[in-house]
Design a protein that fits this description.
The chain is α+β, with helices and mostly antiparallel strands. It contains 10 helices and 19 strands. The protein has a 5-stranded mixed β-sheet with strand order 4-11-7-5-6. Strands 3, 8, 9 and 10 form a 4-stranded antiparallel β-sheet that branches.
């Protein structure tokens, strides 16, 4: 049904035609002159016909109306990905391979070495199953046939009640997703003053532009929690900013950062405007990075509406069910712009991905920040640099950004120490001592 045909007469005639076909009834074609008589036709219709007519009204036409004209649309809908037909997903990412120097002399160890690709996996599970109930009294429907405008008001009531609630739920779910990851330190923070005037807007714009350019021109490990080398093509980058930041940057500078108007960026889904206090109570005022950092997937067939008729109250109750997965990918780039005064880190702990405190000679592994403690009423993150001490072999090395470590075959030290330094405060470090087996 085309949007231009969504008027009372067309809606009722479409449902009448469908009901006649399904139940072999003779509901009339309605016009302006006999529109009011439709309530009488439904009152004298058998229960199964009347209930089927109401189901069609809500489930078929109501949904089409909602798709064409929502009372409210989540500003995060551009982040919604494909539907999934399973409750579990596995995100996989393979890291870059190692480039070795050419040696003219044969080396048996190098020749027979098992060089396995470094493949990381992140597992996600269906984590939202919600329902939105609404009760619709049968007499309310009949009363709607008093006029075409009253009928359309009734339709919009259904639309607003169910689908606006669904859309607002999406806003809350994405905000909770981001805020939980900020709280755990999983998103890299970029401390810089919030744009409030020309100078701060230009500084913020330069930070956005240079950071997204870094993500685009070269694979790096510094902007994603997994520490895997990745990049973000320009067509996949996004910026999410609060309403107040948008107002300032749109006035002074943000269009220059992308060489496009803000409206064009919004149309492409590359710019999203959130409420000014959406993230960390407003301490984080913008996000920038890869849109695929957000893995938001509805289950196939949802949202769906089911109903139950209650004869004692002449009420048809509807439940709109929505099942979806809301997770953040730790393989994709993302940074959060935060007021410097809101940042503070006190301590951190380190661990090995293997869960052990030891490694074998010739083994590869990864040291990571297991937990952080932010200062009171502040936020922090798990990003920083790694350094290695105590090794005797120059082939025992650690990657400064990712914490990926390799113990050389000829290592003679009994243990080595990894020191992590927060990028937020040079004085905040954490250490991990690794025992070398054998």
């Amino acid at each position: 049904m085309a949007k231009k045909n969504l008027n009372a007469l067309n809606i009722v005639n479409v449902i009448n035609k469908q009901t006649n076909h399904v139940y072999n009834t003779n509901l009339p074609a309605v016009s302006k002159s006999n529109f009011k008589d439709m309530a009488k036709e439904l009152r004298i219709a058998p229960d199964v016909v009347r209930n089927g007519w109401h189901d069609s009204l809500v489930n078929l036409v109501g949904l089409q109306m909602a798709m064409n004209k929502r009372a409210f649309r989540s500003y995060f809908r551009e982040l919604t990905g494909r539907e999934i037909d399973t409750f579990d997903v596995q995100l996989l990412m393979m890291d870059l391979l190692e480039m070795k120097a050419y040696k003219p002399d044969a080396n048996a160890d190098d020749f027979f070495e098992d060089v396995k690709p470094d493949i990381a996996a992140q597992y996600g599970h269906l984590n939202f199953q919600g329902q939105i109930p609404v009760s619709l009294n049968e007499e309310s429907l009949y009363g709607a046939f008093i006029s075409e405008s009253a009928f359309m008001d009734y339709m919009e009531m259904i639309e607003r009640t169910l689908y606006s609630t669904l859309e607002m739920s999406d806003v809350q779910l994405v905000k909770e997703l981001v805020n939980q990851n900020i709280k755990e330190g999983n998103i890299r923070l970029y401390p810089i003053e919030k744009p409030v005037d020309r100078d701060t807007a230009l500084a913020f714009t330069q930070a956005v532009k240079s950071t997204l350019a870094d993500m685009e021109v070269e694979m790096s490990r510094g902007y994603n929690l997994s520490g895997i080398a990745t990049w973000t093509p320009r067509e996949d980058d996004i910026i999410i900013s609060g309403t107040d930041v948008k107002a300032t940057t749109e006035t002074y500078s943000l269009a220059w950062a992308f060489n496009k108007s803000f409206l064009d960026l919004e149309a492409e889904g590359r710019a999203i405007t959130a409420k000014s206090d959406a993230f960390a109570g407003g301490a984080v005022y913008a996000l920038a990075g890869d849109k695929f950092a957000f893995q938001i997937h509805p289950v196939v067939g949802f949202p769906k509406v089911v109903s139950q008729y209650f004869g004692n109250t002449l009420t048809n109750k509807r439940w709109l069910h929505y099942w979806a997965m809301y997770i953040m990918s730790y393989f994709n780039n993302m940074i959060a712009f935060v007021k410097p005064s809101e940042v503070g880190i006190e301590s951190a702990t380190l661990a090995l991905r293997s869960g052990s405190d030891a490694m074998n000679r010739g083994e590869k592994g990864q040291v990571f920040v297991d937990s952080i403690t932010a200062a009171e009423n502040k936020i922090a993150d798990k990003f920083g640099t790694y350094a290695l001490t105590g090794n005797n072999s120059e082939d025992t090395v650690i990657d400064a950004e990712s914490g990926k470590i390799r113990i050389a075959r000829d290592e003679t030290a009994a243990n080595v120490t990894v020191t992590w330094t927060s990028h937020l405060a040079e004085g905040v470090t954490a250490q991990k001592t690794i025992t070398i087996n054998g």
